Amino acid sequence: MPMSRWKGLLYKEWIVARPGLAAVMIAVLLAIGVLPFLFHRYISGETSVITYGFVLSSFTLLFLSYMPVLSLFTSLTMDMKRADIWLHSPSSVGVLVGAKALFAVVTTVAAMVWLVFILMMVFLTSGGAAGIPEELGTGVFIGFFGEIGSLVLLISLIQLSVGFLFWSIYQGLRHKFGRILAVPVTFLLFIGSFWLNDKLSGLPAAERLLGAGEFRFPNTERLTQYSDLGIELSGSLAAGGLVVALAVSVLLFWLGLLLFDKKVAGA
Fold it and tell me: Has UniProt tagged this entry with the keyword Thylakoid (predicted)?
């Protein structure tokens, strides 16, 4: 029963989100599959098509990093108009929100895979190795996007957790004090969280913890050696910072669930 319930909730998200997902997929197709050829022809023929593809891919990945939190906000806002979904559903608030968050993350991963697929097609149709050093194989590029995709996914998870927490804070404040007061108070708390994070991360103990260990990205390191590709990224990430980021994200999402559950119970 629990598994079938999850399937039902995910299917509901899929039905509602199909138009938006189609728009995202088409936008990625145009940005990566069409614009590089247009830029190469009308802006600068000296720059290879695949180089334009890499540059546009970086901006597209930045856009996709916001996809989970925006998807979650959209779904939650739609369902907030129907109190019966939360009050009379056999599933808990945690399961309802969790299904929405999981769907948002899965669709973001699908969009990233779609982006990589299109870029590979651009690579093949633009003359293969045009603008690409011969010693770099296809596996390096697949590994590179796997590494960068993991980073983007991590960033999107952090944004999802932070966004959901402050969305829940806003909903609670709006329910008690109205929208006029809820908006500025939520905004001030959001700004204050950056100040608190800056102070805490600047402590000596925190700096040692956040800087401990190292995850290396060998494919990213190899590609950054070729400036013609327009790739300028670090080939490593502090392991301590990664673990803390994931732990804090889980904590913030859990706090958001507690606040939202309290808001629903008081609705």
Answer: no
pLDDT tens digits for range 23-46: 999 999 999 989 988 888 888 777
What is the CB neighbour count within 10 angstroms for residue 252?
A: 20
CB distance 175 to 267 below 8 Å? yes
Nearest to 147 by CA among 241, 60, 85, 223: 223
Mapping DSSP onto H, E and C, the string for the chain reads CHHHHHHHHHHHHHHHHHHHHHHHHHHHHHHHHCHHHHHHHHCCCCCCHHHHHHHHHHHHHHHHHCHHHHHHHHHHHHHCCCHHHHHCCCCCHHHHHHHHHHHHHHHHHHHHHHHHHHHHHHHHHCCCCCCCCCCCCHHHHHHHHHHHHHHHHHHHHHHHHHHHHHHHHHHHHHHHHCHHHHHHHHHHHHHHHHHHHHHHHCCHHHHHHHCCCCEECHHHHHHCCCHHHCCCCCCEECHHHHHHHHHHHHHHHHHHHHHHHHHHHCC
Q: Which of 56, 38, 43 is nearest to 119 (CA)?
A: 56
Task: Specify whether the CB–CB gap between 140 and 223 falls below 8 A.
Answer: yes
Query: pLDDT tens, 188-237?
Result: 998 998 888 888 877 787 777 777 777 777 777 776 666 444 455 555 66
CA quadruple 141, 145, 151, 156: dihedral, nearest 10: 170
Residue keyed to tokens 């905004």: 187
Residue 244, Cα to own-chain centre: how many angstroms? 18
And the tokens for 234?
């670090």
Are 61 and 152 a contacting pair, CB within 8 Å? yes
**CB contact at 8 A, 115 and 61:** yes
Q: What is the pTM of this model?
A: 0.82
